[in-house]
Predict the structure.
Amino acid sequence: MEILFATSNKHKFSEASAILSTKIKHFPFQYLEIRSDNLEEIARDAVAVAYAKCKTPVFVEDTGLFITALKGFPGTYSAWTFAKIGVEGILKLMKDESNKEAKFETCIAYHDGTDIHVFHDVCEGRLADQKQGNSGFGYDPIFIPEGHTQTFAENITLKNKLSHRYKTLLKFSRFLKTRI
Ligand code: ITT
């Protein structure tokens, strides 16, 4: 069975291909995301739009960086925030904050042609004081997962073993194995 991953982000697609044992195909997908504080609501809407376009089993994945000291910002607005102020802007906002706690949350929504199934997971961690590392993408240079000292951008192998995306894809992969 062919499954499409609808995303505009090629980094997300390559991470997912490396992690999932099921073969997936990139469905380049640009759409106007709904505004909501809820990742699942956004993912459900996105996958319904994607399925209407491709008419093939398809999944989307929505991820947000939630910073405790900023009351969860940028959260579901992470893509917009990244485009506007980037990692440097987040570092400026966090300059005088002593609480560096943050987490990535991922929600996958899969449309199997009949129903939508959702999967969630998180990666707890903290923010670095400055950019560190060149691998990965997005907020990876400033995110240090719990129990570690390097950012995701400094240790991409580690990222692909414990990230929000890895854990959520694992749940999705187990679900797919019961179906195929
Ligand atoms: P889609 O087309 O799949 O929606 P996107 O890049 O808009 O692609 P998201 O809305 O899920 O994806 O991502 C929100 C932001 O968070 C975006 O700026 C990403 O670069 C960033 N991001 C997502 N996953 C990340 C990860 O694993 N590490 C670092 N930053 C990440």
